[in-house]
Amino acid sequence: MKPTNINDPEYFHKVVDCQYACPAHTPVPEYIRLIAAEKYTEAYMVNWESNVFPGILGRTCDRPCEPACRRGRIEEEPVAICRLKRVAADNKGEVNHLMPKAPEQKNGKKIALIGGGPASLTVARDLAPLGYEIHLYDEWHKGGGMMRTQIPSFRLPEEVLDEEVNYIIDMGIHTHFNTYVSSMKEILDKGYDAVFVGTGAPRGRDLKLPGREEADKNVHIGIEFLADVAFEHRDKVGKKVIILGGGNTAMDCCRTSRRLGGDEVKVVVRSPFKDMKASAWEIKDAKMEDIPIMNNMPPKEFVVEDGKLKGMIFGNVRAEYNEEGRRKLIPTGEPDVFIEADDVIIAIGQDNAFPWIERDLGIEFGKWDIPVLHKTTFQSTNPKVFFGGDAAFGPENIITAAAHGHQAAISIHLFLEGKDLVYERPAPMTNLVQQKMGIHEWMYDSPVVEDLRYPVPHEQKTITLTNRKIEVELGFSQKTGFKEAQRCLNCDVQTVFDTKSCIECDACMDVCPTSCITFTQNGDEEDLRTRLSAPALNLTQDLYVSSDLPTGRVMVKDEDVCVHCGLCAERCPTSAWDMKKYLYEVTKTYAMPVPMEI
Amino acid sequence: MTYIKPTFRHPALPKNKISFAKADYEGAISTLCAGCGHDSISGSIVQACYEMSIEPHKLAKISGIGCSSKTPTYFLSNSHGFNSVHGRMPSVTTGANMANRDLIYLGVSGDGDTASIGMGQFVHAIRRNLNMVYIVMNNGCYGLTKGQDSATADFGSVSKPGSVNQFQAIDLVGMALELNATFVARSFSGDKTQLIPLIKAAMSHPGFAFIDVISPCVTFNNNKGSTKSYDFVRDHIEATSVLDFVPQKDEITVSYEEGNSATVPLHDGSLIELRKLSPEWNPTDRYSAFVRLQKAKMKGEILTGLLYIDPESTELHDLMGTTDVPLNTLREAELCPGNATLESINQNFR
User: Fold this and answer.
1) Which of A73, A436, A509, A511 to mutate to test the interface with B (most CBs of B within 10 A)?
2) Contacts of residue B230 in chain A, CB cutoff 8 Å?
3) Which terminal CB of chain A, N or C, has fewer other CB atoms within 10 Å?
4) DSSP character for A593?
5) Residue A359's CB: how many other CB atoms inside 10 A?
6) What ipTM does the predicted assembly reach?
7) How many Cβ atoms from other residues are within 10 Å of residue B285's Cβ?
8) DSSP strand E in B13-152: where?
9) Which residue ranges make up each domain of chain A?
10) Which chain A residue's Cα is nearest to B218?
């Protein structure tokens, strides 16, 4: 193999599994260390810079970081990254003075943001400090978008949401609330210099089955049901409720129903449990609230008697998978099942919808009516119009919306400065800092803690089920937060190898607890992976290969289960190994270098 | 401060034939200087015992005093151990071995512990062909007392402060050959591919198996001019052979070119497979080993690898005709012949 190029900013970034998996690339170990040091405000700001909504995400994030966490590869459970984020948000001090401010003197350019959700708010956050005049349009009376309409209060209290939305609105954003934008043409005609579309995926899918129309009064679309509850247009549901669908919206609908008078709430999914789209922890929380989840039962018919919904009929299937892993549901032949219901909530997915964008404005739409966008810049075929969040490539999650928002903001800024959106895009900020303090001392807490993941305490069910506004999860205490933070392996503290200093004494290879390091003859990757101290079977993790050493061998380190304990560097007599902290930050608009004026 | 080794191990590491993981053969984290050659030797011992599927309670590690003799703490935590008096490792091992012939005895010593204070013990253990592995971690200096030249420091070798050694060195390998040791080898801590099979072969050899391992002292003897530094050893190393240890009943997978290869069968059915690098040398011919060793010395080479092995070796217990069962398991019933026998003996003298 060729020697690894550690000057490539992505090499060490990839070693920080959580950060690499995060769409917004939040420097996770960095803020976890700050939490362990009780520097909650600083930890909050590290988060805020990167993902804009730490308090919200600390409760609701889809956590792509956690399945990626290295801890999950050496023991069963990853670090509770998401819950630690909440610890930072819950315990932070005053942060207002740390937020970027919008200048009094504007730069004369106006930008419209359509939709008040996480993507638009991120664009506003990134562009307002540069002096842009930002106009935010939303159909509701407050900002937040789907975070407000689709996430129930027992998961995300309104105060938390308002606080973080207002940090942005307070940057002097011109809000046009209670304004449904029905024509893109009208917006463009108002002379905005750029338009950002962050309207999400607002259309919940319906289910056309016999009896659907007759039962209409008691059949609801999941996201509309949640929005009605959030805006207090609805405070009751029937005693018996069926929820159709196996995603997170279904989980929110069933738990909300439990709080609105639903005593017998059932979730029915047509596929097997293991194919359910909902996050494992949301399924667990639903089950904790006595909600049975029935699988392999496709709905067949709404049963209506005397104009009133009585229940639904379901079939029975089993799943078969072909060689490509494609699923086929095959009827088992068992008799159909009738389940009684007063209300049925359909939560089987949602789609983008752009009925309000006229098709003669130069904005091209492709397959499934999704706008044609540049993958990196989020620019549409009309150079003035940008998309982000669920509106861009279909339903994702809040953290992805924030990531899109940052990139779209950079694009809009470059566009309005007359620069190239791709070639003049700023590189990420990276920094590699030595951690050595003494022979056995590092600036980070190197010993590896063996604790298992700490569970998050919940409020008593008897209390939470009576009021939909009482938050279920109580969050970690500072003490538990510290202990959980200590489980972090500090993957951002990199093992950096200097070939020239190595005397090939093998000390690192002998001491490495997880057998990551090997000195051997070079070969191609496939061959090398089988010849190491421990077989390198995880192909998603790179091999760190040195250039040739004096004996003709090379150092090969399998990054897979390195626990970043620093023992290789401690046992290295020549500091050929060193522990260096790698910070990778996606460059934000307000941190972009300003060209010198001539 | 990290003096604790994390307990996490690579999940894909295999277990050996008796279901032990390599971690089961490890010891406490080393407190020797970072980069010490001795740690590599410890690592090789761990690897050899793991690969040989030795039950940890079937092995005793015995040492004297010195940096080298601290190392048994850093390997085989689940085995028996005795950290004895300076230079007295061989006599403690002799006693233990006499009492229980069922264990594998791994003696660990250093150049001071063997070539100075323990010389008398060393030579007599060889004479008796005591069944043990005797490893000398040889760094040519007294590391624990700030690096003075030891008795194995080569003539003309330059110490860290710059003084040149005026005394002749004791060549432990030559001495072992001279005293008719039945297994003599030399190796280098930085060459595990050679050292691990040597340790395995030594453990399988019935009788005194001696391995002199050159092990650089990174703190006091890794300077320019030293003949026991990593660089010097690597520049001057010369191997007798490339060897492979084939345990009992395992299939032979290495095949060396005919004419150069040699196979030495060991007592227990295992084999040493060699690819000879010097044609005039024969591993079972003591004279050829002498010649090869002297040649290397004259050329300024450090000759490593297996130098000599006596496949017909008879160890001390067999020489003395002791009973097959360990002496420490014999109880009164076996040891006391009884009154009737005593009476009959007494009758003979009447």
Assistant:
1) A511
2) 503-505
3) C
4) P
5) 10
6) 0.86
7) 13
8) 59-63, 80-83, 104-110, 132-138, 141-142, 148-149
9) 10-97+446-486, 101-202+352-416, 204-350, 493-585
10) A573
Secondary structure in 3-state letters for A111-152: EEEECCCHHHHHHHHHHHHHCCEEEEECCCCCCCCHHHHCCC
**Chain B from 195 to 254: CB within 8 A of any A CB:** 216, 218-219, 222, 230-231, 234
- Give A-chain residues touching B35 at CB under 8 angstroms: 503, 505, 507, 571-574
List domains and CATH numbers for chain B: 22-324 (3.40.50.970)
Tokens representing A250? 């279904």
What's A67's DSSP letter? H
Q: What is the DSSP letter of A98?
A: G
Q: At what angle do helices A28-36 and A40-51 cross, to 10 degrees?
A: 160
Q: Where are the beta strands (DSSP E) in B48-131?
A: 59-63, 80-83, 104-110
Distance from CA of A282 to the nearest CA of B (A): 29
Q: Is B245 within 8 Å of B200 (Cβ atoms)? A: yes
Which CATH number among 3.50.50.60, 3.40.50.720, 2.40.30.60, 3.30.460.10 corresponds to the domain A204-350? Answer: 3.50.50.60
Quote the CA–CA distance of A293 and B187 in Å, as a whole number: 66
Tell me the mean pLDDT per 10 residues along chain B, length 350. Answer: 79 92 93 93 96 96 96 96 96 96 97 96 96 97 94 94 94 96 95 94 96 96 94 89 74 56 78 78 91 91 93 94 92 90 92
Read off the tokens for A535: 């077989």
B230: buried, middle or exposed (CB in 10 Å: 19+, 13-18, 0-12)? buried
